[in-house]
Amino acid sequence: MDTRWKPNVTVAAIIEKNGRYLLIEEHTQEGLRLNNPAGHLDEGESPADGCAREALEETAHPFNPTALVGIYLSRFQRAATGEDITYVRMAFCGDIGDLQPHLSLDEGIVRTLWMTPEEVRASADRHRSPLVLRCIEDHLAGQRFPLSVIYTDVAVKLPNAPKSEGIPRQ
Predict the structure, then answer these.
(1) Residue 27 contacts residue 34 (beta carbons within 8 Å)
(2) C-beta separation of 37 from 13 below 8 A
(3) Does the global pTM surpass 0.85?
(4) Cα–Cα 20 to 30 A to 149, which of 10, 45, 80, 166?
(5) Cα–Cα distance list, 62 to 20, 28, 75, 97 (Å)
(6) What is the pLDDT of residues 7-61, one digit of tens each?
(7) pLDDT in tens, 80-112
């Protein structure tokens, strides 16, 4: 029986304000780690919508993606369990709104931190993934792509999308 390889699709918010980047500190199986506000893309949402949702859930700040910073492929092998996971990450930059104090942070999130690029670089040993710094470095380098480079077919958002006759949707 064939099994199809399925990478995990994640979205990340690269949020900069006054020369500092917004990171989250979270509990992971590897201990307390730093990450960009990020998470898995949910069924029925576009990547930009998923990024806005994840940023709000993890930081209690509304986030409006305005550009794609990049698309990244990484592999993580968990030593303790032997788990081998490949991630496709779409990272977005954009505009952040005011803190919504009535919202609580996602489970596992300890706090948010505003860090300079130097502080982010100096804390690389605490990053959840090498992509934390890579996305920030690409943002600092001015890497931006229009949101229109990612097309989301309308069928993605339909509750019962019609299946085409023998032709897989891509």
Answers:
(1) no
(2) yes
(3) yes
(4) 166
(5) 17, 24, 29, 5
(6) 999 999 999 999 999 999 999 988 999 999 999 999 999 999 999 999 999 999 9
(7) 788 888 999 999 999 999 999 999 999 999 999
Options 3.90.79.10, 3.40.50.1100, 3.30.450.20, 3.40.50.2300; CATH for 8-147 is 3.90.79.10
pLDDT reading at 166 higher than 50: no
Q: Quick one: which of 56, 62, 145 has its CA closest to 106?
A: 56
Q: How many C-beta atoms lie closer than 10 Å to residue 48's C-beta?
A: 21
Tell me the three state secondary structure of residue 56.
helix
Q: How far apart are CA 51 and CA 132, in angstroms?
A: 15
**Interatomic CA distance for residues 150 and 47, integer angstroms:** 8
Selection from 105, 107, 109, 106 nearest residue 26 by Cα? 109
Instruction: List C-alpha distances in Å: 76 to 24, 66, 82, 104, 128.
Output: 19, 29, 10, 29, 10
